[in-house]
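Appendix B. Raw example, untouched.
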Amino acid sequence: MQNQNHLLILAHDSRLGAALSQHFTAQGYQVLTASSLAEGLALPPAAAPHLLLMSAQLADMHALQALATLRARPRLSGLPVIVLVGPDEAALQRDLLAAGADDVIVAPLDMDILSLRVRNALQRAEREDVTEPRTGLPTGRLLQERLAALTQNDDWYLIEVTLEHFAAFRDLVGFVTAHEALRHAGYLISRLAAEVGGEESFVGHLRGTETFVVLTNTACGPDLRAALAERLPPALHAFYSFTERDQGYIELQDGAGGTTRQPLMTVRLAVEQQSPAS
């Protein structure tokens, strides 16, 4: 049975990466691997992870540096991270946990125990209401903390991004494909926020909805809004067939033996802002 949770495995040792990938793929997880943090962050939309499993030493940096990089980025600050260390690195457990690791596991690995710890970390993240299960983006407490912090800042630009007519699309393609489209949207929004607004920009996802919240500064806000308006609609329409895109609507069963026409997904952008001069 396919698991909707996506795992990103970072391991400098290709044999370790392959063994972990094989193990978790067999358990139904969606798994991608990389040897460095830079490579992992550059993976395509489908790789947006719910959990990061990494070895202590990566191709480009040590796990301590990787954790500092991840936790300094608002949109990745809530990502669960489990670090695997060798017997000679056991003394690093305290430092890794202090740097933001959710768990540290010392080799030799017991794969059954590792699986349970991954499962527990994912369940804990969902239970603590810090990540939206469909996209892995910050939600709940983390999102509310970011919004509350706006009252202490006189320079912010907030964009609410809502995917409209998503329910009709879900009825057409089913939950699995619909969730992939939602994940793709979340990834693209995050990527544009980083490219246009900088790494300090924040992207959250209101739990159980198709609404994302993007926070950046007023200098970058208008350009980011324009980029979202330009790039999101064609990315969403790519999930429809050529015929559906060409005609501009989809047809669904109406429950009475006929069909009904429904619009393609669209994007609604709502903006609030606060600047030092306002």
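End of appendix B.
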